[in-house]
From TrEMBL:
This is Peptidase C65 Otubain. Pfam families: OTU. GO terms for biological process: proteolysis. Signal peptide: none annotated. The keyword Transport does not apply. InterPro entries: OTU_dom (IPR003323), Papain-like_cys_pep_sf (IPR038765). Residues 95-200 form the OTU domain. It comes from Legionella adelaidensis. Keywords: Hydrolase, Plasmid, Protease.
């Protein structure tokens, strides 16, 4: 399948003068239910992806090619026949448009959602320590083979994985009862493709699309059973996956303890004050990837304390309770804990935090 194409240079070498450009109104769109039980998240991302194609948004060729190649493995009958496209060179976007013309939108949203599910699980398997929530939750561990099944529900961990796989910013607006403003979760905010926005309410995802009329019919039509080609997947065992996650948890915990001990020693030696710690934390978090929509571990978007408490519980240490003492001492302890935690889970850079003090120590050593 061609992934590159050539374009003719513009016929006109100079712009036409005397003609005023007309600014097109912004495309607003609306949230539309595209159905699904257990696969509503994947259908929603599929609908958002297709809507970007239909709206002529510039989706990267490599991403379209990746999705199409995988999709045709599961649904070969969706592949356009040769000669159905005019001309010799076909861009990935043109091939995707032909697929949209060939397959009903209702079927395509459902089947493409299945394809995206497989891509998300692939990402889980390659980086299980980043997507620990997919394998370790409040109930029991879920094997990748089960995740690949059409109706297995996977939480927003799957949305985060798709944002990476598709190199696309995905925003989830979580609507909760008695809360006027929805919680916004952003994944891969710096992705290079047009953003996809979905809404989550009562464990059901719905996408925001521009072509509202066209996608409304998808939710109104009854879902049909799909029959993807059954491809063999060499999945690691749950024991192997959980061992990798446990190893990463242990590494994070050890790094946290090391930084916590170092900061505590510096405070005790008078090298750091409460003001110094506060400046370190504020400056470090201000310049962190966390505020740019990039997180090293999925789950941090809900807050680093919640994520870290889960990790501590897994390490059988439990949540650390506040110690008794003066107010200043409690503030200092909380700042030490927060800085050490942020460094260990990749929200703050170790070098940025300690560079200033390492440099001062080096200068002092010269004059000793």
């Amino acid at each position: 399948m061609p992934t590159q194409f050539t374009t003719m240079q513009s016929f006109f070498k100079h712009p036409v003068t005397g003609v005023k450009s007309v600014k097109e109104p912004a495309k607003v769109g609306a949230f539309v239910n595209v159905g699904g039980r257990g696969d509503c998240g994947f259908r929603s991302v599929a609908a958002g992806f297709l809507d970007n194609i239909l709206a002529r948004n510039r989706v990267r060729n490599d991403v379209i090619t990746k999705v199409l190649n995988r999709h045709f493995q599961y649904f070969p009958h969706h592949r356009p026949q040769r000669g159905t496209l005019k001309g010799e060179l076909h861009t990935p976007a043109e091939i995707m448009q032909q697929v949209i013309n060939k397959v009903t939108l209702s079927e395509l949203v459902q089947t493409l959602g299945y394809t995206l599910r497989q891509l998300a699980v692939d990402e889980f398997v390659v980086h299980p320590n980043k997507y620990r929530g997919a394998f370790v939750n409040d109930t029991e561990a879920t094997h990748p083979a089960q995740m690949r099944q059409i109706h297995t529900y996977i939480d927003e961990t799957a949305i985060a994985a798709l944002a990476e796989v598709l190199n696309t910013p995905i925003e989830v607006k979580v609507v909760e009862a008695e809360k006027e403003l929805p919680l916004k979760l952003k994944y891969n905010a710096e992705g290079e493709n047009p953003a996809i926005v979905v809404q989550l309410q009562n464990h059901h995802y719905v996408p925001k699309v521009v072509d509202v009329k066209r996608f409304t019919t998808v939710g109104l039509q009854a879902s049909r059973a799909i029959s993807p080609v059954n491809l063999a997947n060499e999945e690691p065992s749950m024991e192997e996956i959980l061992k990798l996650i446990a190893s990463e948890d242990k590494r994070i915990h050890a790094e946290f303890q090391a930084h916590k001990n170092r900061l505590t020693t510096m405070v005790s030696a008078g090298e750091l004050s409460k003001k110094d710690l506060l400046n370190l934390y504020v400056d470090g978090m201000r310049n962190s990837d966390y505020l740019r929509g990039r997180t090293k571990y999925v789950g941090l978007e809900h807050g680093n304390q919640q994520f870290f408490n889960t990790l501590l519980t897994a390490q059988s240490e439990g949540v650390v309770a506040a110690k008794a003492g003066s107010y200043d001492r409690q503030v200092v302890d909380a700042l030490i804990h927060g800085i050490a935690r942020a460094i260990s889970i990749g929200q703050m850079n170790t070098n940025d935090v300690f560079a200033q003090f390492d440099q001062e120590e080096a200068v002092s050593a010269v004059y000793r």
